[in-house]
Amino acid sequence: FWWAVAGLAIAAAAVRLFAVYALARTSPLGGGGAGFYYVDSAALFADGGVVVVNQRPVFISRFSPTLEPLGQFSREGEGPGEFRGPELFVARDSIYVVDNQRSVLAAFDRNGILGRETLLPCCVNDMPVVDTAGRFAIGGPFTNPRTAIRWWSLDGSRFVDSVTLPPGPEPSVIAPCSFQLPYQAERMAAAGPNGLTWWGVSDADRFVLTRHGSDTILVTSSDRPRVPVTDANLAYIFDDTTFFAKQCGAALTTRRGDVPKLRPAFSDLHVDSQGTLWVQRPKSTFDVYAPDGRWLGMVANPISGNENWYWRGDRIASVETRDDGAFVLRVYRVERR
After folding, report:
1. Element (H, E) at 242
2. Residue ranges of the alpha helices (H) in 168-218?
3. What letter does residue 178 receive in the DSSP assignment?
4. 296 touches 13 (CB < 8 A)
5. pLDDT, tens digit, 9 for 90 and up, residues 221-273
6. What is the C-alpha separation between 58 and 78, in angstroms, rounded?
7. Which residues of the chain have pLDDT under 50?
8. Of residues 127, 123, 40, 113, the one with CA closest to residue 80
9. What does DSSP assign to residue 308?
10. β-strand 104-109 against 114-119: which pairing, if any?
11. How many CA atoms lie within 13 A of 14 on its CB side?
């Protein structure tokens, strides 16, 4: 492996994203002779230790802060501690795995020893935030988009609170494929370590801070113009949608004219360890808002489209898998001036 330190993005604001290190493992690792084929999810402990998921075949690997292998656990299956589509995060000294295909939440200790499995409603988003009360947040379920977040006890045994958003747009989902027509307005939410949640609807630059969803602590907004969808892009995404609908046996009843003519105002929301809101824009940038709603500035997103990346408090882990089975892990941190 090799490692390097470099600053990749500097903001004209009070915060920036800065590369802590980049590591590349040049020889595939695996259990039973199987090497990495598709590294999909990465999580970091406070001391820099790394846990990654390989999807094909399924196994979970633990590494030191310099990517020295520390062992593997789990495999593909339906039994306890086995998964079919795992995503993971860490909280304190535990490893949590969410598997929407098995509809379970599994809690492991740092060495990969299974503690418990809990059934989940289908289907949820991985949202690894631990608040000061010792709870962690998981997004979803998709079957009820108004239930944006469920707070769980730290041992993963039960959910203790939820954030239910007011009524809003209901995206058209292409059944039975479980994906929706592109560029539709949808609710998005991100929980913070103070137990509060920022949320918004992707067709407007308006962001609400709430505790339970029914209350409003503050609102911040901007008048940033939305980007039109070009005719060429419209044709491309509709052809893609038609193709994937046929792949899963759906009869596509929508037409090209049903696709919105403007791109969403934002594509995702993130909250760092200080409660700062990071609004992810379609053009590889973030707008950053202080916990009191003040706009702090814009930050370039240094992560390429070839990387899967995961926001974890003040650190962002990105994973790029190469054709030869090697993978590159890059870690960025939020830096405050």
Report:
1. helix 231-247
2. none
3. T
4. yes
5. 988 888 888 888 888 877 877 777 776 666 666 677 777 888 889 988 989 88
6. 12
7. 1-14, 19-22, 25-34
8. 113
9. E
10. antiparallel
11. 10
